[in-house]
Amino acid sequence: MMWCIPPEHSAEFVCAMETVLDVYQRPYDPEYPVVCMDETSKQLVGETRQPLPPLPGEPERYDYEYERHGTANIFMFTEPLGGWRHVSVTERHTKIDWALQVRELLDVRYPKAKRVILVSDNLNTHDYSSLYEAFDPAEARRLMARLELVHTPKHGSWLNIAEIELNVLSRQCFCRMIGDWAILKEQVAAWESDRNARQKGVDWQFTTADARTKLKRLYPKIQN
């Protein structure tokens, strides 16, 4: 199992951590919604032989061989207090792909919001400059005016609620082989609909005050 180990005595880490934690404590405001985003890849893998149907007392049996059908990128957006999430499947995860997702978020998902506060990791594609890669300057500035980016610290992905949603998606939707785009999109859309219907929201309890006590080792030692 891979662990995300934060650095000790790091002002850079705790500054970014406290910024995210303070954002999570903001009261719900539909004009300034807090949305978290994350992304991951999904390998498309197909069966080389048809599985054997289950027999009485025995499960369905699959052959160990498989064939690769490429890789898809998964964008996850979720509004913790709104109990809403949306998943997009794309071929790539370039700056332009991210910028297109952001424009859809602002113009389609939140057209009436004055500004969307977007929490994400600090991947180089998750940056205002990506808007300039995808759109003309006027359009990039228009989108920037309605967007506030908040980055989690390096080695601090556990602070991103969208990562939690991605983990749930992986466990519930990607537990078997998926061999083509159509099936992947169908499965993801079904999961999104069911998850939105059943999971109303996220009650994030960990605060800045908790961090200063429980994660004291991460804070710089002040020199008197």
Description:
The protein is α/β, with parallel strands linked by helices. It has a domain at 28-45 and 66-196: Ribonuclease H-like superfamily/Ribonuclease H (Nucleotidyltransferase, domain 5). Helix content is 36%, strand content 20%. The chain has seven helices and five strands. A five-stranded mixed β-sheet has the order 3-2-1-4-5, with helices on both faces. It is globular and about 70 Å long. The two termini are 40 Å apart. 22% of the residues are buried. The mean pLDDT is 88.
Low-confidence stretches: none
**Main sheet attributes: strand count, strand direction, barrel closure:** 5 strands, mixed
Oligomer: single chain
Instruction: Characterize the overall form.
Output: globular
Secondary structure class reads alpha/beta
Q: Approximately what portion of the residues adopt beta-strand conformation?
A: 15-25%
Which percent bin holds the helix content?
25-40%
- CATH C-level class of the domain at 28-45 and 66-196 is Alpha Beta
Alpha plus pi helix count: 7
CATH topology value of the domain at 28-45 and 66-196: Nucleotidyltransferase, domain 5
What order do the SSEs take from the amino end to the carboxyl end, as H and E? HEEEHEHHEHHH
Specify Rg, calculated over alpha carbons. Answer: 20 Å
Tally of extended strands? 5
CATH level 4 superfamily of the domain at 28-45 and 66-196: Ribonuclease H-like superfamily/Ribonuclease H
Instruction: Give average pLDDT, whole number.
Output: 88
Please name the CATH architecture of the domain at 28-45 and 66-196.
Answer: 2-Layer Sandwich
How far the N terminus sits from the C terminus, by CA atoms, comes to 40 Å
